[in-house]
Amino acid sequence: MRVLIALGGNAMTSSDGTARPEDQIAAVNSAMNPVADLVAAGHQVILTHGNGPQVGNLLVKNELAAPVVPPVPLDWCGAQTQGTIGFIVVNALECALAARGVERGIVAVVTRTRVSADDPGLRTPTKPIGRFLPRDEAQPLIDHGQVWQDRGERGWRRVVASPEPVEILDATAVSTLMTAGFVVVANGGGGIPVVREADGSIRGVEAVIDKDLGAALLGRTVAVDVLVIATDVEAAVLDFGTPDARPVGRVDVATMRTYAAQGHFAGGSMGPKVEACCRFVEQGGQRAVITSLGGIARAVRGDVGTVVVAAP
Ligand SMILES: Nc1ncnc2c1ncn2[C@@H]1O[C@H](COP(=O)(O)OP(=O)(O)O)[C@@H](O)[C@H]1O
Ligand SMILES: NC(=O)OP(=O)(O)O
Fold this sequence. Notes:
Blueprint: E1 2-7, H1 21-40, E2 44-49, H2 52-65, H3 74-99, E3 106-109, E4 112-114, E5 127-133, H4 135-143, E6 148-150, E7 156-160, E8 167-168, H5 171-179, E9 183-186, E10 192-196, E11 202-204, H6 211-221, E12 226-231, E13 237-238, E14 246-247, E15 250-252, H7 253-261, H8 270-282, E16 287-292, H9 296-301, E17 306-309
Parallel strand pairs: 1-2, 1-12, 2-9, 3-9, 4-10, 12-16, 15-17
Antiparallel strand pairs: 4-8, 5-7, 6-7, 10-11, 13-14, 16-17
């Protein structure tokens, strides 16, 4: 089976969100065990990953260093996160496969995702990135012109522009490598957002695409059967955070859209995961699963987490 696994920020950082290198390496090492099991079982696997904590940290570094080092735009920061996260994922998966006696080429592809220059998401910041801060520490940054949002019990987080992914420009490279037998890491952070100019040239735009929406598009573009969104909860939950909370198991896409319209899934976290699953299935994918890292192997069989399918 052809499977796309989308790894959330939680798979790649410590729970405090600081994204220290050693924490990222440890988290990715552990995330690659179930992925290696799938590869060893004969599945064709593509990996994609979030970059929210990492791209936010890079942006802060840029801003702090600006007096001495020329700052680079946000799309460059996104490209840099594809490089570093791809690097540690390839290292970790190679090691996990070797432990299972499997030799397989693994490659990380710098992936550009086309967006529309007049996407309203470029004007209104919605995508949370970087560290969580208490309100009083975020306030001076807000006063300085940054946009921050109250993200609940973990604190406040900076938000940036986040357009819809329209086209994965490097999808042919991804497909070709996959068909040649490589495990491909692609479209990290939802892809580097770019627009195509009237003269045909490509220009990066300062934004961060939602990696789950990017994953749904990549998944259909390269015709994977199953999309697995691995995060830090076992399933999408109705009435999340209330005494009536209950997980969604196997569900048809129309019912899932009704739940979403009823407001069960928070924006910037579970909301885009649910939207990604619905799009993937509506566009012909066999099933899309939201589950924890531990559920990745079972998710391919569809017997764990929230499993979105076309019909009841
Ligand atoms: N209805 C819901 N069901 C489950 N989790 C939810 C829901 N609404 C919001 N969440 C939150 O979504 C989080 C997962 O999203 P996010 O933190 O963006 O994950 P990742 O970084 O793994 O992509 C969970 O930890 C949970 O706190
Ligand atoms: N780009 C993106 O959606 O990253 P996270 O999943 O880490 O938020």
